[in-house]
Specification:
With about 375 residues, the protein is α/β, with parallel strands linked by helices. The protein has helices at about 30-50, 70-85, 100-105, 125-135, 165-170, 185-190, 205-220, 225-235, 235-245, 260-265, 275-280, 300-305, 330-340, 355-365; strands at about 65, 90-95, 115-120, 140-155, 200, 250-255, 270-275, 285-290, 310-320. It is built from 14 helices and nine strands. Helix 5 crosses helix 7 (about 205-220), helix 7 (about 205-220) crosses helix 9 and helix 8 crosses helix 9. The protein is globular and about 60 Å long.
């Protein structure tokens, strides 16, 4: 058996049942169980033989890391996979944040490295180059759906009418390169409540934070003509001024646990939270979305692209593991079977892709094309 980054393993023989031996048929002890066991043994031996990057022992279950936003969808797919494929072990899904997941995924191939990383943004060019450098040379990129970067508050809590520009001015460390002086929302705009600015959001390792910076903060910052010109003349300086979040307590990093942000909002009516749309939908009886530029974070507005915080979500599959980790192909197929309109993932908040992207990604989920890095930023 071969696989990229995995050595060839030769199996000399397997004991086979003699003619006339009967199998107990209760609860499905059939001959295909023997075949499955043999395949699992082959995969396990291949992993055990892998000597890259400090690999220790074998692994006979799928391991996925990455985005906290994608985590509930990955968990749902994992449960359906386990139910539909009892011959395989249940996958291990870890919520490490998109950045943390990319770091783990790109460390190399082998039993001690994850098979999939979930991402609430597209892979960065620098991450792709790290993967290539470390021998993760063939990767399949699959878009699983859409999400909205929602701003929300507690039902009955603070009322805000915001725009990317106002959010930037409230949360930037140095808005337009000047010291941050706003303490109250009314300091940013007199039409806003005279209440302290308090926003709970994701950490710098999170894809949600990357999306927040790119889709909201940078977008608001570029409304200033001087900042728009700066992006063309000095992109590093632009990123520093337009992406850096204040650290004086007005923005509170809540780690990778988006459910914790929900709890904070419920307990404090004056707080605002930043997380994926699915968490807003899941807690619709307790939270309300905050419109940006007059556009509310709703399913229809995300699909149409009219909501400023709309974003794509992905999973990345390590092709070297496809025929070595038991059930990996079937697990990816389970994603494709459930990300469509009316699918199980839509019922828990995933925003379904347009038809053309559904078809393209369904094809990719069976053919596993290798990404080239073209178009990555």
């Amino acid at each position: 058996m071969t696989g990229q980054g995995f050595p060839v393993v030769t199996i000399l023989s397997f004991p086979v049942p003699k003619r006339g031996v009967k199998f107990k048929t209760e609860k499905g002890f059939f001959m295909n169980r023997v075949k499955t066991a043999c395949l699992l043994a082959l995969s396990t031996l291949a992993l055990a033989a892998c000597g890259q990057s400090g690999t220790s022992g074998a692994r006979d279950s799928i391991r996925a890391v990455g985005s906290s936003t994608v985590f509930p969808f990955a968990k749902a797919v994992s449960e359906r996979f386990a139910s539909n494929n009892p011959e395989f072990k249940s996958p291990l899904i870890e919520s490490t944040g998109t950045g943390g997941g990319m770091n783990l995924f790109c460390q190399g191939v082998g039993a001690d490295k994850p098979d999939i990383t979930n991402a609430s943004r597209r892979m960065k060019k620098s991450e792709f180059e790290t993967c290539q450098k470390n021998g993760v040379t063939e990767i399949t990129e699959l878009q699983i759906g859409l999400d909205g970067l929602a701003l929300a508050s507690a039902m009955g809590g603070i009322e805000l009418e915001l725009s990317p520009k106002l959010v930037y001015e409230a949360l930037a460390a140095n808005p337009y390169g000047k010291p941050q002086t706003a303490k109250l929302w009314s300091d940013v705009d007199p039409s806003l409540p005279a209440k302290p600015i308090l926003v709970y959001g994701p950490p710098s390792t999170s894809g949600t934070r990357d999306s927040f910076e790119e889709l909201i903060l940078q977008s608001g910052c570029k409304e200033d003509p001087a900042m728009k010109a700066l992006k063309d003349s000095d992109e590093d300086k632009f990123d520093e001024i337009c992406s850096q979040v204040r650290s004086d307590g007005a923005y509170v990093d809540q780690g990778e646990q988006d459910n914790l942000i929900v709890q904070k909002l419920v307990s404090n009516g004056d707080a605002v939270g930043v997380f994926g749309y699915s968490y807003l939908e899941e807690n619709a009886s307790r939270l309300k979305g905050i419109a940006l530029g007059g556009v509310a974070p709703t399913y229809d507005n995300i699909v149409s692209g009219s909501y400023p915080g709309a974003r794509e979500m992905f999973i990345y599959v390590k092709k070297a593991h496809l025929d070595v980790i038991p059930g990996l192909r079937q697990f990816v197929a389970e994603w494709a079977a459930n990300w469509g309109k009316g699918g199980a993932l839509a019922s828990i908040g995933l925003v379904t892709m347009p038809d053309d992207k559904l078809a393209a990604n369904a094809k990719a989920a069976s053919e596993f094309p290798s990404m080239t890095g073209e178009g990555l930023k």
